[in-house]
Amino acid sequence: GGRAASRRTFQFKTTLVGHRGAVYDAAMNESCTKVYSASQDTTVLEWDVETSQITAVCEGHQGFVRAVVVAGGDTGGGGSGALGEASGSPELALSGAQDSCIKLWDMRAPHSSRCVATLTEHSAEVCFLSVVGDKLFSGSADATVKYWDIRQRKCVDTLRGHKSTVFAVAAACKPGETEPCMCVHTVASCW
Fold first, then answer.
1. For 64-130, what is the HEC assignment?
2. Short-list 128, 150, 33, 25, CA closest to 90
3. Residue-wise over 95-105: b if at least 16 C-beta within 10 A, else e?
4. Which of 71, 77, 113, 157 could form a disulfide with 84 if both were Cys (CB 3.0 to 4.6 A apart)?
5. Model pTM score
6. Which of 102-111, 140-149, 168-177 is least confident?
7. So what's the pLDDT on residue 77?
8. How far is residue 90's CA from residue 82's CA, in Å, rounded to a whole number?
9. pLDDT at 80 over 90
């Protein structure tokens, strides 16, 4: 006979209220202290899990924000911190939007300088993001998946062959390897 799978039960804690439009995506940081939400109101909000309060607002997209992910402190640019600094493990939030752009947000920075990069290689809405280590995968309505080096802020490869919007990307590294493998949802292609 088979073993019954154990089920974990979750208890409702609170509702986070603050966006002025639908929420399309959410992500949590590795330490489970912050939640990031992507919204129709063109913003990404950072929330404190304990207090349920908004702790930061990321503004700059010119359309609905469809996707948000969090990259840890070692994915930024040349040092141990998110942007090359040696200060603990700050977050780098990445958002993809209807404006075809991916924005990288340094969540330690003051509001006016929080956006540290805008990636503009997609030609249509960015629908999905997935981070593996210092690599980013983006799925788009331009029917491509782009593979990015977050540290260098550049597109490494473009995967073509889809006939329509790429809504989901699942990526991971095999144990002991640093290069991600990936499966893409819509046309069920694997690389």
1. CEEEEEEECCCCCCCCCCCCCCCCCCCCEEEEEECCCCEEEEECCCCHHHCEEEEECCCCCCEEEEE
2. 33
3. bbbbbbbbbbb
4. 77
5. 0.82
6. 168-177
7. 38
8. 6
9. no
Amino acid at position 139, single letter: G
Amino acid at position 39, single letter:
S
Radius of gyration for the chain, computed over Cα atoms and rounded to the nearest angstrom: 17
Q: CB-side exposure of 109: number of CA atoms within 13 Å?
A: 17
Q: Count of CB atoms within 10 A of residue 110's CB?
A: 8
Tokens coding 53: 């309060």
Q: Which residue has the higher pLDDT, 168 or 106?
A: 106
The answer to whether the Cα torsion of 37, 136, 180, 90 is positive or negative is negative
